[in-house]
Amino acid sequence: MEPAAIAIRIASSAVMPLVRKLFVQEGPGAGIVERAVRISSLVSFRGEQRTLSERDLTALAGTLVERALDSAAPGERPVAADEVRAVAEALARTLCALGTIDLEDAQAVGLGHQAFARRLRAAAPGAERGLSADGARFHAALVETACLHILHFFTQRSTFVAATLVAQTRELARIRARVDELVRRHPGQSAEDASFEERYAADIVTSHNHLTIYGIDLAHSPDSWSLETAYLGLEAEIGQPPTEGQLPTQGQPPTQSVSVSGGTGPQSVPGGTGPQPVLPAEQALSGRDRVLLRGVAGSGKTTLVQWLAVAVARGELPKALETLRGRVPFVLPVRRFSRGHGSRDGFPVFPVPEEFLSAVRYPRAGAQPRGWAERVMAQGRALLLVDGIDEAPEGDRERLRRELARLLAHYPGNVWLVTSRPSAVRENWLTSEGFVELRLAPLSREAVTAFIQRWHAAAREEDATDLDRIDHYEQTLLRTVRITRDLGRLATNPLMCGLICALHRDRRGYLPRGRKALYDAALSMLLERRDRERDMHNTDGIDLTQEPKVQLLQKLAYWMLVNGRSEMDRTVAIDTLAQHLPAIPHAAEQGGPEDIYRHLLNRTGLLREPTPGSVDFVHRTFQDYLSARAAVERHDFDFLINHAHQDDWEEVVRMSVALARPDECAYLLDGLLAARKGVRPVESRHRKLLAAACLEHATEVDPEVRTRVHRYTRDLVRPTSLEGARALGWIGAIVLEMLPDPVGVPEADAHRLAVTATSVADDRAIDYLTRLRDHPSWVVRSTLAGAWRRYDTDRYADEIIAHLDPHELEFPVSSLEELHALRRLGGRPCVQVTGALGPAQLVEGIASDSLTYLWLMHDVGEHMAWLSAFPNLATLQVPATQRVTGVPEGVQVIRG
After folding, report:
1. 3-state per-residue secondary structure call for 542-598
2. Are strands 278-280 and 235-238 parallel, antiparallel or unpaired?
């Protein structure tokens, strides 16, 4: 007989008396309590109301085990007699964890007894250690049975009944009030539409209010955390650098049509032609109805989409995005358009409004009132979050743009945010449709620090065995990222930061170096070490080592690469596994393709089912890496070379060079340099630059091959346009070795070289930039000043900032460290505050006598009396929407 069946047979009359002993008895008047209570406050074996000793708890667990065994038929006992005591002790340790559960009784009931049982077992890591497989299954069944009766006990308490009724009444009142508010706000809206919108908003929050935190132990904690806990505010770069014809004359800053009189500072504001600041994403998006947001893989594009959707659905918006209040968010991942919804003639096109919800497989799509989405769009009330243009096949993107343009023309007044990888679509791809282009900035040093701190704060919320070492891990990693150049270069986006945090913890404070080593270590952690080192039992009867799992995952990744997809049908995934299982006997002998698929989905941490019937990788980066491994193993080098000019193959080619043997690496690099029939000149240039970018990933390269790459790309790194200069940044630090000497070159050339060098987020760029620091051109000096946040604060301050002529130049500061460094240099007359610094920090950090022009990019509050600390201040610039009072006499305020 199965252990679970034995446990379930126990009569409630035999279990409930035992369960009641675990909790304190209600006193008189308990029924008037109007809120749920913490489970940890109810247990009878902790705190001032303790009535059950540790010995009593063990005896109680033993009694429950005995009653379960007594209910078994003769000859069907689930465990041997010599293991009964061990099971009872394990059950006692698990029940003891009730005192640590950070849940209210109502929340536990909402989970259901099976999920609550998993939560309880996670709160007692190691409780099953030493049990046999049968003993562990019996223990799990006992815990589940106990939880069933515990939750039933909670529902019988008078306090629970009262609290639940109060909560339900309040929720119904809130829903009615919200529906009434929607009807009042939109007089032509029916109550049916308003009611559906309220339910839809709640579902948006449920679906998107979570983020995966890599490396958290899935057995002992949730696999995701709420946005409130894990979201790190992102930053975006606004606008484009000036074109050649827009360069200001020497020594003069660019201006826009804002009259500024009486000020002595620079007059470049957002919308002008000068280098634009890096702003918090919500501020960069403020007031913009149509935005194309570019960002590299892992930079947080999808996270930002989720955050916006949840914030709008909840109506909890920052002041900068207040104009989005009341809008209806539609989250529309482009990857879904090519899977039958909104697809005609095999091309992915933008779905019509009535298909929005079905295109993303919203469960209640069929319940929406007829024509509801059409009415929302026609009224101009929608927020459309179109995520991942790069995930449409390259040949289909132009048709997608035309369909998007048609919807824009037909439904004016809505707000659009479209996201893409940087090179997936050309510059100004949607400019003719009124879109502004923003770029997600790499994480600053301060943001990396904040991410690491927040990640470890989330880790402390779990009940793991290494919590006593979390503080040490955090401080060690913060120090390591600051002083290790290779690691600092990798930690530039949320994905890589999360991966680094997870590996650092998993390896007890040690990290691999280099991107290839990082991904290899991540695969080892996710595919093998996590389960093995935490004594986890097989839950599906399949026990695969790391290599077979990697091979199978590679097959799925390679299918997606060949077919230009980032998602595949579940049936296609199973069929693909079925084709390759015979060649992997260790996997084939443990189950069929459906069984292996479920194992890879549930146990590897690399796959997910975003919607029923579809599967993808948790992040595109893992897909790229695994498909590169497959291509190298298959020796598909010509296949890689033939597609290298396509943007969605860039990362695959880079990783293939890192994985290839020396002779294979040489073949790939020579193939990228060689002329190719049918390849356009712009694509040929792209391939050569990719060859240069690949050099830093190659472990061993023939010197002659390296020389050829340098020779072929030397002229390419003499940019002839600002767009080309900016595009060179993705190559990495190796481009610094090939850039020409900037000393004495014309102003336009110097500006393009400055743009290229400051796009390389590596401290090695400082050595090159020192040769530009004395240039008389305002636009060159402004480019150098605006790059400070990307480099070591003190070194950049001493070697670059200290040497820049401050005439009509604003100096951006994004952190206290930069503020203090600027003060150490004696201050500057014009300071642009791009970081979230408060008045007290600014008064303490800015050299008071030198300041004449202060540009506040953040809303620091309405009252400005603190500005009296700066006697020579003449001009204050604030965000367009900010109200200010108490500005000292003589200080002019401009907005923009």
Report:
1. CCCCHHHHHHHHHHHHHHHHHCCCCCEEHHHHHHHHHHHHHHCHHHHCCCCHHHHHH
2. antiparallel
The DSSP code for 389 is G
The answer to whether residues 855 and 895 touch, using CB atoms and an 8 Å cutoff, is no
pLDDT single digits (tens) 308-327: 999 999 888 888 898 999 89
CB 813 within 8 A of CB 789: no
DSSP 176-235: HHHHHHHHHHSTT--HHHHHHHHHHHHHHHHHHS-EE-TT--TTTS-SEE-HHHH----E
Whole-prediction pTM: 0.55
CB burial of 853-867 (b: ≥16 within 10 Å; e: otherwise) equals bbbbbbbbeeebebb
Distance, first Cα to last Cα, the chain: 74
Q: Taking each helix axis from N to C terminus, what angle separates 681-694 and 703-713, rounded to the nearest 10 degrees?
A: 140
Provide the pLDDT for residue 485.
60
What does the alpha-carbon distance between residue 272 and residue 779 come to, in Å, rounded to a whole number?
A: 12
The per-residue pLDDT for 408 is 94
> CA–CA separation, 116 vs 756, rounded Å?
55
Q: Which two tokens stand for residue 678?
A: 């049918």
Beta-ladder partners of 174: none
Contact 859, 883 (CB under 8 A): no
Considering only CA atoms, which of 805, 876, 785 is closest in space to residue 260?
876
pLDDT for 792 equals 87
Residue 538: per-residue pLDDT: 53
Low-confidence spans in the chain with pLDDT less than 70: 1-13, 26-36, 47-49, 73-76, 158-188, 211-232, 239-277, 297-298, 338-348, 423, 461-465, 483-490, 495, 514, 526, 528-540, 605, 715, 730-732, 734
CA distances from 596 to 577, 589, 869 (A): 8, 10, 68
Distances (CA, A) of 302 to 331, 358, 442: 10, 20, 15
Q: What is the CATH number of domain 537-634?
A: 1.10.10
| Cβ atoms 147, 116 nearer than 8 A | yes
The residue extents of the domains of the chain are 3-162, 212-237+277-440, 449-524, 537-634, 637-653+661-713, 806-896
Residue type, 611: T
Rounded to whole angstroms, what are the CA distances from 159 to 32, 45, 101?
Answer: 7, 20, 19
Domain 212-237+277-440 class? alpha beta
Given this model, what pLDDT does residue 245 score? 35
